[in-house]
Amino acid sequence: MTSGSYAYFSVYTPKVGDGMTKDRTAQIIRVSIRGIAVNLLLAAFKAAVGLIANSISVVLDAVNNLSDALSSLITIIGTKLAGKAADRKHPFGHGRIEYITASIIAVIILLAGITSLRESVDKIIHPADASYTAVSMIVLAAGVATKILLGTYFKKKGAALHSDSLTASGADALMDSVISLATLIAAGLNLLLGWQLEGILGAVISLFILKAGIEILRDTANHIIGIRAESTLTDSIKARLNEYPEIHGA
Questions:
Q1: pTM exceeds 0.90
Q2: Is pLDDT of 18 > 80?
């Protein structure tokens, strides 16, 4: 720990396998399973509304919910793999697998954004009449509220459990709520005024989705490469080390 009169230290990932780590893994999996269940229900309802109303944006929204369920499944797999105990080849454990799963989720977000942008541009070039009802509007509104609640829940749990995968899923869900809100607004304008704005609103929202995916991918790449520890952590470690009279500097 010491060399001459100076102490050196490194910030490392704690080994897994203790009770706290197992409890964290179990909590992340529980949260992800809840997300899968909610997204599958939303996908079923939105697909039904989209097919009945002949709305491509609502159908795409349903497909997006299926991709969110896939994101949660990836989070579960990544969390299980990250929870593996340290071994000879990986003495610091497998915790960084969570960053890899967060990157995969970011790629899914980017693909969803690209698909949404392509379909929106096609909708602008080749507009098609949609037929909404009061029931379909209620379903879409409920979907927006559910996505906001789910995204907030994921982000809160992700921060509490220090899970980048859950945080990424939360950001994805919140962006989806914006997509659903845009779809709801377009449906309302179509129902009340007969305006066809699905394509334009979809294109604008697609750009925001792409921006969110790029930011998540950038942040997780920084963690994989390795970034400087927060100053509050390093300062506390230095202060603790300097409490010992044998250490003249850290």
A1: no
A2: no
